[in-house]
Amino acid sequence: MQKSQKNGFLKCLTIQSTPSRLLGWTVYAPLRLPLLTTLCAKDTMKYLLIIPIFFLLSSCVAVPQESSLIGQCLELVEPHKLWEGRESIYASSRLITSSDRVQIGPMEKTGVSFVAGTQFKVQGIFRNSNGSYGPFLRVVVEATSGDNKGVVADVPACVPYHPRPRWITNCTLNANELTFNNQVVRTCT
């Protein structure tokens, strides 16, 4: 082992090793972390711990998107039900759908239903991300008519585990280019 010069913000010991041993470190990542702990300076370890935590937490945050669709009035074509459960990156604690089956965590039917003709206002569009699925847009609406006026919930969009039929027909990441499924909702008259 030789002590290396300060290179950027890393100040570590250089290990002269065979390529096969280096390949072993690359393949067996869990074994590499304790090795880095003993070889690198304390400041470097702070960065090595903070960076992965930042990436993990950033995927849990729903980022509001600006869109010309916010405030748009939509009217149900067919009856829908309200589901409630635990909030997740895929939906808020409420979801409005015509489906009889929802697989987003432990969601349950509430007994609240929305009849065809109930009007909703698009309240917000949020960008979120899942590690294996990637980024997606969630759409949140508020009921503006009917017995359940004021209920705020997500609607089925191009989001993992959302039931079908979806309110959104295209899976884009541009909030201004989202189009609504006219078999589920239509623009208010």
Gap between N and C termini, in Å?
Answer: 76 Å
What percent of residues adopt helix (DSSP H or I)? 10-25%
* N-to-C SSE string, H for helix and E for strand: EEHHHEEEEEEEEE
Compute the gyration radius: what is it?
24 Å
Tell me about the largest β-sheet: 6 strands, antiparallel
Low-confidence stretches: 1-5, 7-39
What is the overall shape? Answer: globular
Number of strands: 11
Q: Report the mean per-residue pLDDT as an integer.
A: 78
How many helix segments? 3
Q: Roughly what fraction of the amino acids lie in strands?
A: 25-35%
Structural class by SSE content: alpha+beta
Based on the model shown, name its key terms.
189 residues, six-stranded antiparallel β-sheet, three-stranded antiparallel β-sheet, 3 helices, 11 strands
Give structural notes.
The protein has 189 residues and is α+β, with helices and mostly antiparallel strands. The protein contains 3 helices and 11 strands. The chain has helices spanning 19-27, 29-39, 42-58, and strands at residues 2-3, 13-14, 63-65, 73-76, 80-84, 94-97, 108-114, 119-130, 134-143, 152-155, 185-187. The N and C termini lie far apart (76 Å). The model is unreliable at 1-5 and 7-39 (pLDDT under 50).
Gist?
The chain has helices spanning 19-27, 29-39, 42-58; strands at residues 2-3, 13-14, 63-65, 73-76, 80-84, 94-97, 108-114, 119-130, 134-143, 152-155, 185-187.
